[in-house]
């Protein structure tokens, strides 16, 4: 029987068991940067490398509609989110988000988060221990709510932070974490929809030009404003990814603990090094294991094919640890990004291609800006790292230091 016609074994159980290593393990067993497999009952082709990134974001071959599994929509993105759209519908919806990303707006969010961090640090010094991952989530939530124009009396920041983090933490794993994520999604969509409705009816006033106002007033067409629930989904798609930067904050602390020589350049306020450090944290540490799209035509890559209606998987973790692309991928070396900015199809923790026209996350600039700012503040903070479990398990998706990175004896700079 032709090798391309042989029945494929469904590898979903292996994915759940192996986590980030699932596709790299398959790639090692193949003859190149491509693997045929089956996932969630559908034939799939897994690819890697800058050229594969361009293939993955070619809407003539790959679309998002119908590709995101329902459990992911019900936890991470929300039903009807911009991530599920293609073509003109995607571009129109994305126009809601792109104005938020001009340099002044990004700087404004960074200032709000920095102020929330500085306020939090003053309380940390009075506590015997803090879990940095948890505290970062709260700081980021407080900062993004203030920036988005959400009235302080409309949300409980601590409860919202807990739910936003839960949505990310449980999207890829069956069991209790996934159930917590579903409950968090339902709870916050209900609360956020109520806030949107209050703005639309005039019961609340959203600050002019705020994110809250933009989402409440957005129309996909002149005749069709977003329904209240979809508007809530998209407002959460501003808040949730900002809270998710708590993963990178924990990873940045982990990097500074393992390689403390980087601390001095960050403390000194070297802006170029802070950017390079942020990029290297996003490359070196695992976040998204892979991305998936639905094939709208038969797709052939390096001699392997997947039919229309199958899946094309982009191996993000393997891409970021590819020897041919990075030279020394398992060495944490921010200097690799000092000489040049990473190409659009090289560093892809939040997708590849052009964020204005494709599916690359439009909030990537925000992530980098926040991580630059908070990495410098981390480097300037005095604290003790007690004995704890700092392992980062690759079977857990999304992963993080097991302990959440505990610190004691915090001393404000």
| Order of H and E elements | HHEEHEHHHEHHHHEEHHHHEEEEHHHEE
Kindly provide the radius of gyration, computed on alpha-carbon positions and rounded to a whole number of angstroms: 21 Å
The number of domains: 1
Helix content: 40-55%
The rough form would be described as globular
Contiguous low-pLDDT stretches (5 residues minimum) are none
Distance between the termini: 69 Å
CATH topology: Cytochrome p450
What is the name of the CATH superfamily?
A: Cytochrome P450
Strand order of the largest sheet: 1-2-10-7-3
| Secondary structure category | alpha+beta
DSSP helical segment count? 17
Going by CATH, the architecture would be Orthogonal Bundle
State the major sheet.
Answer: 5 strands, mixed
Strand content: 5-15%
How many β-strands, per DSSP? 12
Mean pLDDT: 91
For the record, the CATH class is Mainly Alpha
Cofactor: heme
Keywords: Heme, Iron, Metal-binding, Monooxygenase, Oxidoreductase
Protein name: Cytochrome P450
InterPro entries: Cyt_P450 (IPR001128), Cyt_P450_E_grp-I (IPR002401), Cyt_P450_sf (IPR036396)
């Amino acid at each position: 029987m032709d090798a391309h016609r042989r029945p494929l074994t469904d590898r979903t159980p292996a994915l759940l068991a192996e986590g980030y290593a699932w596709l790299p393990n398959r790639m090692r067993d193949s003859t190149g940067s491509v693997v045929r497999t089956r996932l969630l009952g559908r034939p799939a082709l897994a690819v890697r490398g800058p050229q594969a990134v361009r293939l993955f974001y070619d809407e003539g071959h790959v679309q998002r509609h119908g590709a995101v599994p329902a459990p992911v929509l019900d936890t991470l993105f929300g039903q009807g989110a911009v991530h599920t759209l293609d073509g003109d519908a995607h571009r129109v919806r994305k126009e809601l988000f792109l104005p938020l990303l001009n340099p002044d707006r990004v700087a404004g969010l960074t200032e709000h988060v920095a102020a929330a961090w500085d306020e939090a640090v003053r309380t940390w010094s009075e506590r015997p221990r803090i879990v940095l991952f948890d505290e970062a989530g709260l700081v980021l939530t407080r900062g993004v709510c203030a920036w988005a124009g959400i009235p302080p009396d409309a949300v409980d920041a601590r409860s919202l932070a807990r739910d936003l983090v839960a949505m990310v933490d449980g999207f890829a794993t069956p069991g209790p974490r996934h159930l917590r994520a579903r409950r968090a999604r339902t709870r916050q969509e209900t609360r956020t929809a109520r806030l949107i409705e209050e703005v639309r009816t005039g019961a609340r006033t959203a600050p002019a030009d705020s994110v809250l106002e933009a989402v409440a007033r957005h129309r996909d067409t002149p005749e069709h404003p977003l329904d209240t629930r979809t508007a809530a989904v998209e407002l959460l798609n501003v808040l949730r990814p900002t809270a998710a930067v708590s993963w990178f904050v924990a990873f940045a602390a982990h990097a500074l603990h393992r390689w403390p020589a980087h601390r001095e350049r960050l403390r000194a306020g070297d802006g170029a090094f802070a950017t390079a450090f942020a990029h290297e944290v996003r490359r070196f540490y695992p976040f998204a294991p892979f991305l998936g799209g639905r094939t709208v035509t038969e797709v052939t890559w390096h001699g392997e094919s997947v039919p229309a209606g199958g899946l094309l998987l982009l191996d993000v973790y393997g891409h970021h640890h590819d020897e041919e692309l990075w030279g020394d991928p398992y060495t944490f070396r921010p200097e690799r990004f000092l000489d040049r900015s990473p190409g659009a199809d090289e560093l892809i923790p939040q997708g590849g291609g052009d964020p204005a026209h494709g599916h690359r996350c439009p909030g990537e600039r925000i992530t980098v800006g926040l991580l630059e700012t908070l990495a410098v503040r981390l480097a300037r903070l005095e604290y003790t790292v007690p004995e704890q479990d700092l392992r980062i398990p690759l079977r857990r998706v999304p992963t993080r230091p097991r302990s959440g990175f505990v610190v004691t004896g915090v001393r404000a700079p």
